[in-house]
Write a structure and sequence with these properties.
The chain is α/β, with parallel strands linked by helices. It has helices at residues 35-48, 69-86, 98-107, 123-127, 155-172, 192-200, 203-206, 220-226, 234-246, 257-275, and strands at 2-3, 6-7, 14-20, 52-56, 90-94, 111-114, 133-137, 180-183, 213-214, 251-254.
């Protein structure tokens, strides 16, 4: 698949390293909101095997408050500029802001990753004529209230339908379908049962034909299953990533790159045996 000017083979599962340049993200808020420390951590993730670095300047944890576009730009742009200049990683920007999207395109990022699925006014127009890949994510509600009482009749099919419909809307808006990835949005307006149902049936996302990205790293669902606090959810997160890859997911978004890469390699090998009938 093309990510702007870079081609990446997605028949091999890929690792996206999380880089939150925020003071309040759920797992690492405040740790990397200085550009030098952020770049140092990004380099550590790249050396551990990350293909992408996903830079986010607005926390989307449950209950998070929005930030201004200017504040998000001030957080994201210095780090993205250095990543593009000083590393070989593919650079993703995690944003719903059309202004941040336009600036990311201008700087030459490879992927725009939007938890709101490019639904904000001006988002489609901001990305229409660019070459960056676009990741569409499902979220029920908004970060401030999304976990209050999420309700579905059939979470797997409703999420799948939303993602397909949203992809059709972007294509109708002039965006090539080959630029699109989808993300079921673990933890974004879903309770534990919803998240487990989605994990079990990720094949229903894969069979859409779009590359699938999944992010479960250190999330509340992992804590609920393991009883561990956020920093201690490494093993549970790696297992979840491996299960996702075994079901055909193409990219996993993670905090703990080295541990996840080992788990993913095992899962990919097992999936290969299944595909060839062994």
């Amino acid at each position: 698949m093309l990510f702007a000017d870079r081609e990446l083979d997605l028949s091999v599962p890929r690792i996206m390293g999380v880089l939150n340049v925020t003071p309040d993200s759920f797992s690492d808020g405040g740790r990397f909101n200085h550009p030098e420390r952020a770049l140092e951590h990004a380099q550590e993730m790249i050396e551990a095997g990350a293909d992408f670095i996903d830079v986010g300047g607005e926390s989307t944890r449950p209950g998070a408050a929005p930030v201004s576009e200017q504040e998000e730009l001030d957080r994201v742009c210095p780090v993205v500029e250095r990543l593009l200049r000083d590393t070989d990683a593919l650079v993703s920007v995690d944003t719903s802001s059309p202004a941040v999207m336009r600036e990311g395109i201008r700087m030459g990022v490879h992927l725009l990753n939007d938890v709101r699925a490019f639904r904000r006014p001006g988002a489609i127009e901001a990305v229409r004529d660019a070459s960056q890949a676009l990741c569409i994510m499902h979220m029920q509600g908004e970060p401030g209230t999304m976990q209050d009482n999420p309700v579905y009749d059939n979470v797997v099919e409703e999420v799948r339908t939303f993602l397909l419909n949203r992809a059709r809307e972007l294509v109708a808006g002039g965006i090539g379908s080959r630029r699109l990835l989808i993300d079921p949005g673990f933890g974004f307006g879903k309770d534990l049962a919803h998240n487990l149902a989605l994990l079990k049936r990720l094949d229903r996302m894969v069979d859409t034909g779009y590359p699938v990205l999944a992010g479960m790293s250190r999330k509340r669902m992992i804590g609920a299953l393991t009883g561990r606090d956020t920093p201690d959810r490494v093993v549970g997160s790696a297992v979840a990533a491996a299960l996702a890859v075994e079901r055909g997911v193409h990219i996993v978004r993670v905090h703990d790159v080295a541990e996840t890469l080992d788990a993913v390699r095992v899962a990919h090998a097992i999936r290969g045996l299944k595909e060839y009938g062994h």
